[in-house]
Write a structure and sequence with these properties.
This protein is mainly α. It contains 19 helices and no strands. α5 packs antiparallel against α8.
């Protein structure tokens, strides 16, 4: 494998800075809603739901606009907008004019810009590195993600305790400004964007990313696997907090420990991802670790109070993130490889919009199920759904042999 080069390192550095800011500021907006605006539980929940669903609707048409434009200006623009909206929160707090509606606008805008940035960033990374470098590049991004998830929230908790949530929001805002400056420092000219060869009806343009996914057997299967797995995982997150803090009597410090330690599993998995993929092949990794990650939550509903229960939770979560750390770079590399350049941004955007729309539905369903039965029952259902998602993986070898050009042709002809 050849060196990834200085431009990749600059892009990687920009990503690391923005992820550190994001993880340090994780949970700051809901905290401000509760402590500063005295928002109700429903309003705090609504803030998260609006950020996911409305941002997905806003970002929906973005894929087609991004696809045929240079990606770096889009990424820089998304970073600058995130900087501006997040910086407006501490400024509004200083002048005493912060409102709940303001926080909702910030949450929606920030999330929509994240979708836009990731859609442009995925297409840009594919053009920046050669095919044999993709796995190494994606593994480095994955390692950075899990490292920041391990370091950022504890650091953010300390900063909130000492200086308040406004500072963490401000640091998150500055991280996006630094990310924009880092992308601006990329030296090599950006390749020409793909040329639009066919302009169809606006509805066809809007749905092109999904139609490409569904026309490719491998992507189609992995899409539904991701929706069920990701939805079930998001369903389990608030339930685990309720189980640990309310029913098992763990302290907030122990809960934070259970969130922080497993990030090490994600780091180790991402560091080993390239080596394991070279040893067992991309298909072998996606299928085997897609199954293994589905087994990791099975012990959570049976966790008991005390040290033994804490160990069970930490081990389960660490195993889950280790499997995710191996699976995710292999999946991202596969998706890059089977998506032609003229559809990369739209496929990535469609994937993100779908995830942002589906996950709140799973969370709401989990809350209703827990209210109707119990927290443990709802966690057990989440664990079963995570395991069952493995059945949706592309098990048929024909799904791996399909050429990406066939999907592109199918979408173009049906537009």
């Amino acid at each position: 494998m050849s060196s990834l080069g200085p431009d990749f390192r600059r892009l990687w550095g920009a990503y690391a800075i923005s992820e550190l800011g994001t993880t340090v500021g994780m949970g700051a907006l809901p905290l401000i809603a509760v402590t500063v605006l005295d928002s109700s539980t429903f309003e705090v929940t609504l803030l998260a739901a609006l950020a996911a669903i409305v941002s997905a609707m806003i970002a929906l048409p973005a894929g087609g606009l991004i696809e045929f434009r240079r990606k770096r200006p889009v990424m820089i623009g998304a970073d600058l907008v995130r900087f501006a909206v997040l910086a407006s929160v501490p400024v509004a707090m200083v002048f005493g004019v912060l409102t709940y509606a303001h926080l909702c606008v910030v949450g929606v805008t920030q999330t929509a810009c994240s979708i836009v940035f990731n859609a442009a960033g995925g297409a840009h990374l594919k053009a920046l590195v050669t095919p044999d470098q993709r796995m190494a590049a994606n593994s480095r991004f994955e390692t950075t993600l899990w490292t920041m998830i391990s370091v950022g929230p504890p650091l953010g908790g300390v900063l909130v305790s000492w200086f308040g949530a406004a500072l963490t929001v401000g640091l998150d805002a500055v991280s996006f400004l630094l990310s924009a400056l880092g992308i601006r420092r990329l030296r090599a000219p950006e390749p020409e964007p793909p040329k639009r060869v066919h302009k169809g009806h606006w509805a066809a343009e809007l749905t092109a990313g999904w139609r490409y996914i569904f026309a490719h057997r491998g992507l189609h299967a992995l899409f539904w696997n991701a929706m069920v797995f990701g939805g079930a995982m998001m369903l389990s997150t608030p339930l685990l907090a309720v189980l640990m803090l309310r029913e098992l009597g763990f302290t907030p410090w122990e809960y934070g420990l259970a969130l922080g330690i497993p990030g090490v599993g994600g780091v180790l998995g991402s560091l080993l991802a390239r080596r394991l993929t070279l040893r067992f092949g991309q298909r072998g990794i996606l299928l085997s670790f897609g199954v293994l990650r589905g087994l990791t939550l099975s012990a959570l509903p049976f966790a008991a109070p005390g040290t033994a229960g804490l160990v069970v939770i930490v081990v389960s979560e660490t195993a889950l993130l280790f499997c995710a750390g191996v699976f995710n770079p292999a999946f991202t590399t596969y998706r890059m490889g089977v998506t032609v350049d003229g559809f990369m941004a739209r496929v990535t955007g469609a994937w993100a919009v779908s995830s942002k729309s589906v996950q709140p539905m799973f969370i709401a369903a989990g809350g209703l199920l827990a209210a109707a039965t119990s927290t443990r029952t709802a966690l057990a259902v989440a664990a079963v759904a995570v395991f069952a998602s493995a059945a949706l993986l592309p098990w048929r070898r024909s799904a791996w042999d399909q050429r990406s050009a066939e999907s592109a042709k199918s979408v173009t002809l049906s537009a």
